[in-house]
UniProtKB/TrEMBL annotation:
GO terms for biological process: DNA catabolic process. This is Exodeoxyribonuclease 7 large subunit. The keyword Cytoplasm applies. Transmembrane segments: none annotated. It comes from Dokdonella koreensis DS-123. The gene is xseA. GO terms for cellular component: cytoplasm; exodeoxyribonuclease VII complex. Residues 30-119 form the OB-fold nucleic acid binding domain.
Amino acid sequence: MTTVAFDTEQNDDVTGNQDIGAGEILSPTRLNRLARELIEARFASIWVEGELSNVARPSSGHLYFTLKDGGAQVRCAMFKPRSTWLPFRPADGMHVLLRGRVSLYEPRGEFQLVAEHMEEAGEGALRRAFEALKARLSAEGLFDAAGKRAVPRWPRRIGVLTSPSGAAVRDVLSVLGRRFPLVPVDILPVPVQGPEAAPAIVAMLQAAARAGRHDVLLLTRGGGSIEDLWAFNDETLARTLRASPMPVVAAIGHETDFTIAEFAADLRAPTPSAAAELLVPDRADLERALARHRLQLQRCVRLAQERRAQRLDQLWARLQAQHPRARLARARERLALLRARIVRAAQRDGERRAGRLARAAVGLRAGHPQQRLLRAAERSAGLRERLRAATGQALERRRRLLAELARTLHAVSPLATLERGYAILDQPATGGIVRSVAQVRPDDRVRARLADGLLELRVEQVRPAAVNPDRGEEQR
C-alpha cells in the first residue's frame, strides 16, 4: 500500500495563486502553469512509499520510474546529481520510501513526483521514527550540552548496565582491570535487545539512583542492526538518563551507530572498550605522573633551599650596608655629586645667557636703519630689472601677434588674389562690381582693376555660357 506523509503542515489557503476572472479564456500553457503553481505550493515536500516499476536511466544520468501500489500509480523523476548519490541500484519490484515534491510537467500536462531522496523501505521507517524522536527531544533541550554532567576523573565505584553474557561486558572488565584495577565495578544485568529491554534498563537506572552507591554508570552493548539497537531509542529511557543523579556514559554498538540514549547520556563513547578507557585513568600514566611529581617535589625542595640561602645573603648585605661608616661614605659621595651638579648648572646658565646676548646683537644689527636701506635698495633694483624684462617680453609678444594678424589679413585680402592674375570688373557709371554677363551690354564701358593698375575697357560682344548636352560641361 502506498503511504504519503507531509514534512510540514500546509495551510488550507495556498498563497501565491492568482484568481481566474469569470469568463477568462486560458491557453493550455497558461492553464498548465497555473495548475503547476497550485500543486507545488500545496505539496511542497512529502514522503511516499510504494513499489518501483518501469525504472529507466538514460544517458543523461536522470532516473525515471513509476511508483505504484494496488490501486494507483504516479510518474516519478529523480534528476542528476541526486540520482547518482543513491546507495543502492533501483530496480523494478523494489519497495522504496522517497521524499519529493509534487509537480506538473507543463509541455505535456503530466502529473509527476520529483524525488529528492529515496531509500529502501523497512529500515527507512525506523530511521524516520528515530529522526522524528531525535528532533522532538532536541527541540525540548534534552540533548543540550549545558545540561550534561562531567564524568569524575577518579571514580570510587562504577556501575555497568549491560547483558552479563555479552561480549561488551568482557571487553569493559578487561580494559578496566588493565588500566585501573583498584576501582570496584558492579555489573547491573539488563536485557539489551527486544521489547522488554527498555523498561528493564529504565528500572535498573532508577534502582541505581536510589541506591546512590556509584559515582558513574556505563550503559553499553555490542553492535547490531538498527532493529537490534532499537531498545535504546526509547523516549522514556532518554528522559530517565537525563534525570539520573549520577553521570551516565553510553557506548551502544559500533562507532558508526547512533541511538537516542547516546544523545541523552552525559558522554558518548564509540565502543564499549573506549568507554572503559574514558571512565578510569591509565595505571601506567599514573605511575609516570607519580614519577614526575616526585622529581618536581625534589626540585621544589632544592629551589626553596637555594632561595632561603640567597635571602640570608641579601639580609647580611643589607646589615653591612646600614653600618655608620658605610652611611657616612655614602653621604660624602652624595655631597660630591651635588657639588658637581651645582658647577654644571652654573656653567650651563652662563652659556645660555651668552647665547641669548649673541642672538640679541645679531637681531639688533639686522634691524639697523642702514641695513634696512641697503635691503630696500637691493629690492628696488631687483624690481626694476624684473619690470624691464617683463616690458620687453610683453612688447615682443605683441609684435609677434601683430605680425601674425598681418599675415592672416594679407591671406584673405582681395589684393593677394589680384597678384595671382585675377581682375575685378566694375562699371564706372554705377560703381558696382560686375558679377554676371547679364549686367552689361555691348558698347558699355567697364573698368578692370589689376594688381598694378586699372584698365579702361569697352564691351564689344556678350556671350552667355552654354551647356554642352553631350559632355555635361559649360561652353563659353
